[in-house]
Amino acid sequence: GQALPVESRPFASYGSALHIALPQAPRAGQLLTLLIDYEAGEGPGVCWLSPEQTAGKQKPYMYTQGQAVLNRSFFPCFDTPSVKFTYSATVKVPEGFTAVMSATSWEKQKDNTFVFKMSQPIPSYLIALVVGDIVSADVGPRSRVWAEPCLIEAAKKEYDGVIEEFLVVGEKLFGPYVWGRYDILFMPPSFPFGGMENPCLTFVTPCLLAGDRSLVDVIIHEISHSWFGNLVTNATWGEFWLNEGFTMYAQRRISTEVYGLPYTCLEAATGRALLRQHMDATGEDHPLNKLRVVIEPGVNPDDTYNETPYEKGYCFVSYLAHLVGNQSKFDAFLQAYVNRFKFQSITADDTLGFFLEYFPELKEKGVDSIPGFEFDRWLNTPGWPPYLPDLSPGQQLMRPAEELAELWAADSLNMEAIEAVDIMGWRTYQLVYFLDQVLQKSPLPEGNVKRLSKMYPKISKAQNAELRLRWCQIVLKNNLEAEYSKVKDFLHSQGKQKYTLPLYRAMWGGSEATRALAMETFSATAPQLHVNVQNYVKKILGLAAAE
């Protein structure tokens, strides 16, 4: 999520308004039926994959991606998160293909025709369609996984039984799950995001099939959107933190209940490190580093996407919890907040107004204007969050990782001390945290990374995408030419934006050899990347972005 292109493409390329003249002026509240005959296909919201861009490599595949403002190229709509509506769709597909949508009901009729209905009002960006060679398997009482046939066994194994556990905890914390089913669709490797919280049917990257259930925090994140984002929605993309900051908070509340505080603090520390990296790269006072972003007319909201609404947003919600000072009281507030604004689109003023109304004693104390922590400052001043939640319970997992990274950064390696640390029992986020520390200390003294690679095949030969990303970054930062092929292999295996852009940035900022590697890898993989990701990579490599 660090796509910050220098200049924004003119937003006009995202379509023009459809003006409809009515035979006579309608009355307020009158119901109109409008029939629009249109064709869509080439727009940015509809992605057509050739067989080689899929996991199975046999049949083509299509999917839509609406967030933020791309569904206008899929069907005529009020393409703003401030408007919510129900929908239904009839989709006829060729023999040998299946259609699925983000809908509460799904029915297959004759002639390969599928009928969908969404009975709850949602904003336009949450309508999604996939057509492909896909099959499903049940993994819980209200959940199934969808994937290409070659991935379905792995998907079932990784997620059997876990989804329901997260849903039950979510309902206990935030109130009823209103969407009926919660299914997960594993997308082809070129899908540019970790997950997209389409209601009833979350789309996720196949990178989550790590084989060890280690990346389920992404699923917990998407499940949390069932309350924050999908049920209570930001009315404008300039206040995206209302979707993402609350969802990060909710995700970490569920994670704390399921996995405990130390592990959750460790995961939050890796999130904080991403925010630090982002702010160092852009400069703290960059206008995107505020929670309330001014999106000028003509700017594509997608071009404002970055870590701030997620991690600074999380800090602000944590600050509100800190003001309340009692976790169960704040949990009760969140439940009341969801109940108050469900099926609505709201602004930060609505959220903060409700917070002060719910806690009159805090309003009395003037907590919205404590010097240095004013709500207005949180929203409108760029930079590092004024308040950081205490992540010290994660220290028991972080300290060993920090100490081990120190050992590896030494001029002469103390192999005795290094061998005394057994990383085999470490969980993925502990390894990620260790690698983040190594990356910060890179380049390491000559030869150290080579030894590290040899000593920990669990890391240097990992199949887990989060570990692979960090290992590739370390390889590049240390000019470990012997392992450049791993960078190439990783970029060939998937096209997720959060993994792809940082590696191209690292290659482009490195040596002649890494720049050549970047060009070679991009020319080989460009056709399998999402068009937005292609354009962002072109900007990094100084190639003219295609219109």
UniProtKB/TrEMBL annotation:
Keyword terms, alphabetized: Aminopeptidase, Hydrolase, Metal-binding, Metalloprotease, Protease, Zinc
Keyword Protease attributed: yes
PANTHER family xrefs: AMINOPEPTIDASE B, LEUKOTRIENE A-4 HYDROLASE
Classification via Gene3D superfamilies: 3.30.2010.30, Neutral Protease Domain 2 (1.10.390.10), Peptidase M1, leukotriene A4 hydrolase/aminopeptidase C-terminal domain (1.25.40.320), tricorn interacting facor f3 domain (2.60.40.1730)
Cellular compartments per GO CC: extracellular space
Cofactor note: Binds 1 zinc ion per subunit.
MF GO annotations: metalloaminopeptidase activity; zinc ion binding
GO process terms (BP): proteolysis
Binding site for Zn(2+): 221, 225, 244
Name this protein carries in UniProt: AMPB Aminopeptidase
Keyword Protease: yes
Residues the record lists as binding a peptide: 65-67, 192-197, 496-498
Domain of life per record: Eukaryota
Family to which the UniProt record says this protein belongs: Belongs to the peptidase M1 family.
Residue span, Peptidase M1 leukotriene A4 hydrolase/aminopeptidase C-terminal domain: 396-541
Gene: Rnpep
UniProt-listed InterPro entries: Aminopeptidase_N-like_N, Aminopeptidase_N-like_N_sf, ARM-type_fold, LTA4H_cat, M1_LTA-4_hydro/amino_C_sf, M1_LTA4H, Peptidase_M1, Peptidase_M1_C
Highest classification ranks of the organism: Eukaryota, Metazoa, Chordata, Craniata, Vertebrata
Cofactor(s) for this UniProt protein: Zn(2+)
Active-site positions on this chain: 222 (proton acceptor), 310 (proton donor)
